[in-house]
Amino acid sequence: MVHAFRSSGVAASLMQGQSFCPFIPVFGPPDVMFERGEGTQLWATDGKRYLDFLSGIAVVSLGHSNPVIADAIAEQARTLVHVSNFFANPVATETAIMINDLMRDAGAGDGQVFFCNSGAEANEVGIKLARKFGGRGRHVVVSALGSFHGRTLAALAMTGQPAKHEPFQPMPEGFRHVPYGDLDALVASLDASVSAVVLETVQGEGGVIPGDVAYLQGVEAACRKRGILFIVDEVQTGFCRTGRWFGFEHAGVSPDAVMLAKGMGNGMPIGALWAKREVAAAFVPGDHGSTYSGTALATAATRAVIAEMKRIDAPRLATEKGEYLRTQISQLPQVDHVRGRGLLLGVQLSGGLVAKDVYLKLLSAGLVVNAVNDTTIRLAPPITVSTSEMDEAISMISAALA
Ligand code: PLP
User: Does residue 172 have a cis bond before it (omega within 30 degrees)?
Assistant: First the structure.
């Protein structure tokens, strides 16, 4: 059977003559089929226009089909797409130096980069690095309940959502989960078997829950005292989404390693692990790898993203636009509060409203958001969103909630 598309009949026409859906059904039935994007706007195959207030999922932070990034990708595609990791290429090298410069400016110090293809892979390499750094018998990673670190087996085991583990038991061992924001619980979990603590600076998939500044500082201090690595997963929060280049800057902490993906490629599949030099030194040749690590095409996208984010002062824009949205949306009836940082916002609904219903109502009105839990709508529009697009979205949200 083909998936039923809720809001358009495109599946039937595209799949004419097919007796079954071509996709393995891990994502559930899609609601719309999009064929074109420009900035904040998307167009479905039936011609309907939408505003994308989710940026994919916090991915296209510089807008869909951004011409600067598109040109960089096209030019690189005509120059050099890929060489093996037996060799270097100038684009990956330059991009790794740029990322390290950003980390140094953010207060994390000097380090090195491993490029991969997704957020889950960035977490996998972070877990392996923590185990190698800790050594035999000191391999446990402590992470938070409600966290999300990806769908590969170890990243899933680190993800603090037991329901997602159940179908795949037994999970890889060596993971321990504690309530997010509870410093005492975290400190109590730090025994001699722990190599690292891995936290999101804002729990994105967990409901847009910002990490308290004192909590993150307390975790860092507890790790330092015991020689445990303090690692942050900035897959969703990195690259200016929260109003700083990286979410950890809000707390003034200095992580030992940082996972990156999503916004760093503006839609090009790329991720990275950055680690302080003395931590990265735990790895030797052969400890990790990936055919596509540092491929020229993907790193050209990231190089262009960094240059463009600097040019437009993306951290300032995310802060200002986030504040505008937060202020306006907080005043709407049926909104309990708006939480988050920068342009990663959770709208907490009240009055018994169900987030999934609000999502569907907004989708039919032409606004893409997502229901991140039963009562919270997540907003993460492109940092390039215009004031008139924000006003258009606010009036759609206001109408849907009324
Ligand atoms: N880590 C965080 C904080 C995420 O939000 C996500 C994805 O939502 C991931 C890791 C996994 O990234 P990917 O889907 O690229 O594997």
Answer: no
- Mean pLDDT of all residues in 274-289: 98
CB 249 near ligand 1, within 6 Å: no
108: containing domain? 71-312
Which CATH number belongs to the domain containing residue 327 in this structure?
Answer: 3.90.1150.10
- On whether both 191 and 287 belong to a single domain, the answer is yes
267/137 same-domain check: yes
Residue 65 lies in a domain: no
Q: Are residues 319 and 299 in the same domain?
A: no
In b/e form, how buried is each residue of 62-85, taking b as 16+ CB within 10 angstroms? bbbebebbeebbeebeeeeeeeeb
What's the predicted TM-score (pTM) here? 0.96
Which of helix, strand or coil describes residue 228?
Answer: coil
Tell me the pLDDT of the chain averaged across its residues.
96
Average pLDDT over residues 236-262: 98
Region 18-26: mean pLDDT is 87
Residue 88 has pLDDT above 50, yes or no: yes
CA distances to 120, 177, 199, 261, 290 from 157, in Å: 11, 10, 14, 19, 21
CA of 291 to the centre of ligand 1 (A): 20
Q: Is the CB of 149 under 6 A from ligand 1?
A: yes
Residue at which a domain ends, from 312, 331, 366: 312
d(Cα 386, Cα 349) in Å, to the nearest integer? Answer: 25
Q: How far is residue 102's CA from residue 16's CA, in Å, rounded to a whole number?
A: 49
Q: Is residue 155 pLDDT above 50, yes or no?
A: yes
Active-site positions read 148, 233, 262
Taking alpha carbons only, the member of 171, 101, 114 closest to residue 143 is 171
Do 126 and 137 lie in one domain? The reply is yes
- Is any ligand 1 atom within 6 A of the Cβ of residue 204? yes
Contact between 40 and 366 under an 8 Å Cβ cutoff? The reply is: no
**Residue type at position 40:** T
Taking the CA of residue 237 as reference, the ligand 1 atom at the shortest distance is: 3
DSSP 395: H
Give mean pLDDT, residues 367-382: 98
Q: Please give the number of the atom of ligand 1 that sits closest to the Cα of 120.
A: 16
CATH code of the domain covering residue 157: 3.40.640.10
Share of the chain above pLDDT 70, in %: 96
7 within domain boundaries: no
Q: Is the CB of 378 under 6 A from ligand 1?
A: no
Considering 258, 284, 312, which residue would you say is the last residue of a domain? 312
3 state SS of 210: strand
